[in-house]
């Protein structure tokens, strides 16, 4: 590459790509700032002006990207939902795991997400607990939550069939594990000064060993 090529002006497409990347970075900073404010102060602390000040931009820029606070909340929830989906993919659906290992991974997935991203989980719990936003959270997060539950139920059903475990109530067991995950997130959010607990994994294993003693003997 010669000096003339290095100094050549960007094409129209190149300038558009650069503007798009700057816009994406700006959107992400606003989303992260909103999560931080919610985790620290709850939903009442969120205003477009407050978020703009936190990211060092104008109120007009925040409005340009999101329009209003409801759309901002929608974008935050979509971001959180996407991030947990990626986390689930990396932990639960990784190649080479046995079905028992995948079931244990569902428990570890929830715990590691909480440890790695406490502000994300805190904001998510607040969204799901507030009357003004719980419907929006259910609309955005609900389909994924039901899909995870059905995936766990399917794994439990496969184990029951393969091992000849007649009479195992896989629906109740799957829902019970889901309740424990939800409980972990709520408990750790309101007790953030306490060290992370391993109770979810230990309790989940107690239930799984009770239902499938041979399959989970090594855990």
Provide a compact summary of the structure.
With 219 residues, the chain is mostly helical. The chain has helices spanning 3-6, 12-41, 48-55, 59-66, 69-91, 99-116, 118-129, 134-163, 170-190, 199-211.
Walk me through what this model shows.
The protein is elongated. Helix content is 76%, strand content 0%. The model has no long low-confidence stretch (mean pLDDT 90). It has two domains: 1-67, Arc Repressor Mutant, subunit A, CATH 1.10.10; 70-219, Tetracycline Repressor, domain 2, CATH 1.10.357.10. It is built from ten helices and no strands. With 219 residues, the chain is mostly helical.
What's the helix and strand layout?
Layout: H1 3-6, H2 12-41, H3 48-55, H4 59-66, H5 69-91, H6 99-116, H7 118-129, H8 134-163, H9 170-190, H10 199-211
């Amino acid at each position: 590459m010669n000096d003339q090529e290095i100094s050549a002006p960007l094409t129209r497409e190149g300038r558009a790509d650069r503007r798009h990347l700057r816009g994406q970075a700006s959107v992400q900073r606003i989303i992260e700032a909103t999560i931080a404010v919610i985790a620290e102060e709850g939903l009442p602390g969120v205003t477009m002006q407050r978020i703009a000040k936190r990211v060092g931009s104008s109120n007009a820029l925040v409005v340009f990207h999101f329009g209003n606070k409801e759309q901002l909340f929608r974008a935050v929830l979509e971001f959180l939902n996407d991030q947990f989906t990626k986390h689930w993919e990396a932990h639960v659906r990784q190649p080479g795991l046995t079905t028992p290992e995948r079931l244990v991974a569902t428990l570890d997935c929830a715990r590691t997400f909480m440890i790695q991203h406490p502000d994300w989980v805190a904001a998510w719990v607040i969204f799901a607990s507030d009357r003004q936003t719980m419907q929006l959270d259910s609309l955005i997060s609900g389909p994924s939550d039901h899909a995870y539950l059905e995936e766990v139920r399917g794994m439990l059903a496969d184990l029951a069939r393969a091992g000849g475990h007649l009479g195992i109530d896989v629906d109740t067991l799957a829902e019970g594990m889901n309740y424990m995950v939800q409980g972990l997130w709520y408990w750790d959010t309101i007790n953030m000064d306490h060290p992370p607990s391993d109770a979810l994994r230990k309790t989940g294993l107690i239930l799984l060993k009770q239902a499938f003693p041979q399959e989970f003997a090594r855990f």
